[in-house]
Request: fold
Amino acid sequence: MTTELWLLFLSLPLYGLYLGAQSLIFRWKHGVLYAASARDEELPEGELLGRAERALKNFQETWLVYVVLILLAHLAMPGDTLIFWGAVVWGVARIAYLPLYLAGTFMVRSIVWNVSLIGLAMMVWGVLF
Reply:
């Protein structure tokens, strides 16, 4: 398996971290029975659950770009150093982003998000040039 496919594979537990955080906080806030129901009535989400849901949505938006770039790299230029380091920067920043978002950290969270964007930009540059 190429390095790019390993990086793609390693992004799956990261996705699971975001999804798991949102899911566990949801069940903690509303209970397992409500989580198992059809959820026809809306319950207030609260601060922490709202952050977890927004963090998950944010991750899903950037993860799709990451997946496409990694697959393009795998097909077109496997082993590219810039793409590798861009993927690492993106992954490390996304790991740091979740607890910062859940804690409601001001400004640092946005800086970390921008670092993850730099990682994606590195990957784009590597794919294009």
Q: What stands out?
A: The chain has five helices and no strands. The mean pLDDT is 94. Helices lie at 3-30, 32-36, 46-76, 81-102, 108-128.
